[in-house]
Amino acid sequence: MRRFLFTFLLVSLAASGQALSGRRAPSFSLPDSNQVQHDILDYRGKWLVLTWTTSINCIRCGPLAKALEPLQRQVAVLNVMISPPETAVTATRFSAENKITSPVLFDQSQVAIGYFKATPRNSRIDTPHAFIINPEGRIVDDWPDGRVGTILAAKGGVAAALQALMSAKK
Question: Could you give all domains of the chain from N- to C-terminal order, each with its CATH number?
Fold first, then answer.
């Protein structure tokens, strides 16, 4: 009986898991701290790294933003913060502290819900979290917080991980 319940639990968990990659990237138009709108359709035809980040208690948010900064000739980078609690002041401070020039956009969680497939039962939105979107507008990979740490520590880091994705014909 225990074996049956254990097997049932594993199958139920596997069935309820929702892959965040392998689908069309949800559409959005979000403002940055200068009230300039950034529409995902403006990035079609380009590789896009869309990160969810925060300036509050996030050990890997700054290192990920810094690692993406020199790659902006190869990929477009957009950083998204949930507002509130983030504000133009916290976003400006985050950009200055991490020496980044990529736009910081503000979401009131509606876009995050689409990307993270959030539901009342699964409402977690982890940071940092990167979504890698190919030129056709499909999410080809996503990097939750733990995976971001592994990628940052790996040989070649973020640049090598992105290069591997871009060279794969997904």
Answer: 20-167 (3.40.30.10)
